[in-house]
Amino acid sequence: MNKNYTKKIIAYVFVLIIVLFVSKEVLAFQKSKMEMTPQNDFVVEPGKTEIFLNPGETVIKNIAITNRINKTVKFKLTTEDMVGTNEATSAIKLLGDEVGPYSIKNFIEPEITEFSLDLGEKIVIPVKVSIPLDAEPRGYYGALIVSNEPEVFSEEQSKESEGKARLVSRIGSLFFLRINGEGQESGSLQDFKVIGPKKAFYERNPKGFEILFKNEGNVHLVPYGKIIIRNMLGREVMMIPVDAYFSLPNSIRYREVLMPEGTGLGRYTAELSLYKGYSNENEEVSLAFWIIPWKILIATFAGLFILISAIYYVLTRFEIKKK
To answer: Which helix (H) or strand (E) holds 240?
Structure first.
């Protein structure tokens, strides 16, 4: 009996050692180096990580940073919450030290937060994402911000650099976390219009179209769709895909869809079919616009007038000579 008990203890210890060893290997950051031409910047990958988890689950994701600055640089890794905006120029807003309504700060933990890289050196850092058992099923959003520390100058260098700005670059890797469950999925199309000021007609194809989509739920959505262009006879002349994009909760996402360059003549209709990113729901809306290339038309009519006048002149002169 004692021998069996001893064997069990040895087995448990052996398993524990293996687990600890494997966990350490999984969570260990890794560095590599390559030859490269200095470009005075650094690269952070991936730009966006989307995660779906159940309460109580844990997953490991990686973030990679490559130094392309021609010197050894110290970096810091911090976590910031983010929210959506109602601005056309920016889809997200980072909140700095402020805690957001969809805070992710307590859920993600990078293995290290400070490190140095030489030119051409790349580090891959594991990021642990852990969800408490009592976490509410909805969306949580934030970013891991990689920033370089300002260079420290000696006393003599400080005098030479007095009055010069010491720049700090910041690059974010966005995290979209959704906890599975009864999250609120709700969104609606707010507007669909031609980019730029409204015109009675356009000389050439408009620049494109602007889509305003409002996310009214508590999880991010990924709308997508297509725009069909039809001429005045109802014939399809063009199909423009609306690639999938994210929309954060309680915000309006502005999306520009560019139209290929070209020209036409007459009245055209743009028909938008937008899938909201949940339950196969979609909305359809259309708008009309005119393309009248008046400069080309004037030049064409002027050319025709000159040609007809020349023909008439030749014919009338020929008749006069015959008489």
So the answer is: strand 236-242
